[in-house]
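Reposting from the mailing list since nobody answered there.

I have sequence plus structure tokens for a pair of proteins and want to know whether others read the tokens the same way I do. The first protein:
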Amino acid sequence: MNPTHENRRAVLDMAVPTACGFNPSRVTRIRAAALVALLLMPAIARDGSAAEGKLPDNAPPLSYSAKTPFAWSNPLPFEYTEGQTAPRREVRDPCILREGDRYYLVFTLWPFANREEKRMELPNNGSSPGIALYSSPDLKSWRFEQWLVKSSELPENCPYKHRFWAPEIHQIGGKFYLIFTADNWLKKEYNPAGSWGTAGYAFVGVADKITGPYEHITYIQGAACDTSLFGDADGKTYAVIPRYNIDIQEIDLTGLPRGEVKWVGQPRRVITAENTDIGIAAKPDYLEGPWLEKINGKYYLFYAGIHRDPNHPDWLGYHTGVAVADRVMGPYEKDSRGRIFEGGHLAVFDGPEGDKWFSYRGEARNQARGLLCADPFTLDAEGRVQTVATTVGPRTHTTSNPSAAADTKATDAFLVGADVSWVPQQEAEGRRFSIGGVEDGLLAILKEHGFNAIRLRLFVDPTAPGGYSAKGYCGLESTLAMAERVKAAGMSFLLDFHYSDTWADPAHQVKPAAWRDLDFAALTNRVHDYTRDTLAAFARRGLTPAIVQVGNEISAGLLWPDGKPDDFDQLAALLRAGIRGVREGAPSAQVMLHLALGGQNEKSRWFLDNALRRGVEFDLIGQSYYPRWHGTLEDLKANLTDLANRYRQGIVVVEYSAPDGPQINAIVRSLPAGKGRGSFIWEPTHPGHGRLFDRTGAALPALQDYRRTDPAIEQ
């Protein structure tokens, strides 16, 4: 918090979709190029207006937790009639994607056919009727949303009028991309290459919402059936292309509004169908259905293979394998098992507890051939994918993936905390603290009343021009000295990096003076190095914090102008750099992202979703709550409850002021799945803010309210 400003609210303003129809007079072909442009992001309004950014869903929140196992049954209870003469359950290539509160599904609809002259008189010329979108709040009850592409509504010469195999939706850089395989069965010349082709052609379209409309649908020359997409955290996009083996190549989709898609660089062969490299004689006929997912900093490339060699009866069927790499272009190392489960053409999505699941088509040996299935998977200590037995019937799952389970290290106890960063300055000015007329140290008084954690803010160089303090308060040496006192008091310690020489908050995120002339690459490196080296200084004195904030009240970004949310790719890069510094300098510490959106749910979700989609890995969600800016206590409870249901991270109200402490602690304690980790009152020694002590340092009656109303303190 900055006590000197009032304009703290940053309002999210989502992008407005544009409309553009298909132009059947031309088929756009890809031109080779080496240009990659950042995709546009929603803008941030900073005028304090009340405009709200809207998310594309309004369903009730998912509410499953690690403490309440999620129950489901494979195959999933799914049936469809769209484009069919009778209800059907058969699917191919199912792709489930979670967006907000709902799961969305696209797949290859029946019939799963190639072009045949004898079928041309059938509805849709014997082809799949298009791409339909379905949704569910719980993976168990599904409904038809709308057609994304419908054959009967397309002109006769449309190059993507038939087939509609392997549709996938990928969210990349704030946009949604629909990629699929299609062709035209009416005349050869209507096809992109002027021929029928063997398995169709790859097309891609773009939308602002998962529900569409998907516009500028464009042919991807040189791609193949089942081509998939992957957006990396650095803003680059890659195509994963199955050509018997599997290749990866960078692709530029920013020209789609102009009907252009461009390859960047050269393709790289990353996986071969041969299994001799892992000592397995059985090999598939070919590889297909790739899906690339980044998990815990590594790249997991899943792929499917059909095995028909009777010399290897144990391998007959449709199987999924996986390979892992440290870099997106490899080298990839195949899992030595060769397969991780029976079934295939999977898509990875965030499951009920935020852990990783995959959707796939079931197979014969688990009695679900061609039906929609979904299962969770985990990573073992060596980073290998572990799956549950893929069988039919009722199932339950309690998350056990360390990357998905709510983190508890260093904060098992509920935190009753206080930010007392002003105290050294107050004491230097003569302030002494007392209770009932008896003088005592501040930390001792707080601890006696049940406080067990202290938060300290840190400025880069508070003595710099325009900095916080010419005397160096809240600088490194001052904060180290205060951390010594916290340790001696036996209390937990949270370190709050402002990444500024002075206050950082929603209205002020000023770069440190020494960093202002750095280009973005150098700035990112400086954030990493400064964070790592600062924490190493604490560690050398045995003062490693339990929690580290990477930025203070970063709802509107940090290190302006580079880290504003209207370029979330850059903001995410800065956050990742800081987090890497924490992991290296204080491996035992939990990382917190601190927002100033205590009662603003949609804005909180927008920020967190954008961070998570760009590989920002953190352990705790911090929120500021001041009624003047963040609404009522009911607003706070509603927001935190939804965040607890939606995300794996624990939640801390890391700033608030009197007199709401006991009520806030009660709200945080009540959050689902034990996600509420605690709270920190902001500057309790300041009579204008925390108001637990008066101007002389004497404890006020409000301090006793904690003892009377907080069950942890009473214990």
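The second protein, same order (residues first, tokens after):
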Amino acid sequence: MRGREPYYEGNKFLRRSKYEKAIEYYDEALKRNPNHDWALIWKGYALYRLYRYDESLECYEKVLNKRGRPAEKPELEALAGKGNVHYALNHYDEAKECFERALQINPRLIDALIGIGFLMHLKHLYEEGNQFLNKALKIHQTNQFALTGIASGLISLEKYEDAYEYCDKALDVNPSSALSLMGKAGIHYHKGDFKKYIEYSTKASDSDPEFAGPLLSKMVFFREQGEIDKAEICYQSALKMDKKLCLLSRIDYGIQLCLKEEYDESIKIYSEIVRMDPEMIHAWVNMGIAYYFIGEYEKSIECCDRALKFDPGLTLASYCKGANYRKLRDYNKYDEYYRRLPDIDPDFFDLDWIRGIPYVIHTRSGEYRLPFLTYNKKIINKLIEDCRPEPGEISDTPREDQDLISLEASLRKLAGKWIGQNEYINNNISYNKMELETGRSGEDYVEYYLNKLNKNNKIKQFWWISDQHALAPYDFYIIKNDNSVVLLDVKSTSGKFGNDFYISYKELEFIASIGYEYCIYRIYEADDSVAKLRISEDIRTFAKGVFDLLERLPEGVCPESLSISPSVLKFQSEISIERGR
């Protein structure tokens, strides 16, 4: 076998779209001559058509990494090929750099001109993109990418007559061009000629049965016409052919629902997407934004965190988290995500980063480059406007105070979550008038005691929550100087320390489940001016043990409250409180 024969055999299989077989021959050629540039380039292209993008890049890099050689055709082909791979991987900047480098060497390189044209379209610069595609068309008047790309740009510009002309030109060259047939179908749709729309969409499907695009287009059409059964048939058929293409189209549908402020419906769409592909980052972020607009801030943060798990540098997900923390009054985290943003991504607020993402499809009939919009500028602007801080809300607040505000907000939210529970209310409204008056008097003493600690800088802050919300699961919270938290329940009696006190079942459940220290402040021998106080150690372990025992009771048996003897808990030494001193 002569030395160059495997290379030519590889080319034969490449022209027949037998890419795996072509690669075998190119590998044989490269064994004989590791510096065979064209074997590397066409192997790279074959790998590209098989979606093996990392291996394709390696081939192109081997050509480009050779030193001491003047710029020549293999290098240009490698640059263009590398740019196409980066385009398919949605590496916008890397693709742009490759195409621009190639055009600096040869301004007439068709693949690079087409590549720049498609990148312009992703940024919605359709006129500018078409200028590059027209340059390519002047060099190669029958280039399918140039013809269909120009038609697509003109459709986006709503220049339907001109677009139709370019679709016809593409069909003159290749009568079975599915993309051109789809273009004509879309133009008929915009003109309201639905019969012609169906005709050309069906032709597009028939011309390339491996391409799911026409089916998805018909799915949208049937859904708009209220023919849900037909829409579902189209969607399920497309889903079997190309799941990712279907999911990208569903993101677009979710965005359209958000624009109409149908957030609950959009969340259903995004949930369906991430169920089918948990790594679909754009769906997680869009779902987080939708949850934000309906006030489900915790769920919104969860969605953003899922997106950040896959892409920690995703600025929009971080920004959305900051917006949620502001709504939750967690100003420390809001400050972290919002104020640092200009340093992390100075161009974020310009929104120039919002562009379509490419989806490249390889079938036996050809290659398709479809742009999808995964974010909408109007929606992101609405998020930004809603998130802007009021004057003095953040910037005039010292960092230490922001920590305190955030902590207090979370504690009040914790109480509020339990205040609204009917079972909790029902289990705590049976106390008689004397018990309530005694309890209130005991809380007055504790409030007096904590005020003294606060004035003497023994604690940083406290709040008497039951003064405003009698059904709260704790009476006070204390924030110590190290920002640790103690929740406390005041148990009062005019009698002796050893008298039993009561804890409701729901209180016990709360104490057993929380992450903060929980103490009993036992007020006893109290009269109008003097009372005694003993403070328990943290009772969470005790509460959890009792609650676990109660959980074993037969179904349907649930004590409303429990009588607790102080002797079963550990208390600190006695403190005497004299009001007015």
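Reply #1 (J.P.):
I read it the same way you do. DSSP finds 27 helices and ten strands in the chain.
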